[in-house]
Amino acid sequence: MSTRGAQAERLAAQFLQGRGLKLLQQNYRCRYGEIDLILQDADTLVFAEVRLRKHSNFGGAAASINAAKQGRLIRTAQHYLSTLAHIPPCRFDAVLLDTLENPSPEWIRNAFTG
Description:
Layout: H1 3-17, E1 22-30, E2 33-41, E3 44-52, H2 60-63, H3 67-81, E4 90-97, E5 106-112
Parallel strand pairs: 3-4
Antiparallel strand pairs: 1-2, 2-3, 4-5
C-alpha cells in the first residue's frame, strides 16, 4: 500500500471513530481481497472502503467502487463473517477523500448492498 493510501485510511478511521464507531480491524486480507476498515456502529458491523482520488477525471472517488470491486468486498466480508460465532447486521460504507491536505471526508453509509 502506498504511503498516501495508508494516510487516507488513518484519516478515515479517525473520522469514523470521531463519529462514534469503534475500529475493530484495519486492512483485513484474505484470498478474495482486502477490506480497509472493519468497525462497529452500535449493533451493526461496518465494512468501510476508503478511496482517495487526486483527480476527478475518471468520475472521482465514488466511481472507483465499481461492480467488480463491490464483488471482491462482498466476498471478503463473507470470509470475515465466517470466522464469527454470531453474524450481526452488516453494511458497506465508503469514505471518500479528494485530498490529504485539509481533508473533508465524505461518508456514504450503505454505499452498496451485499
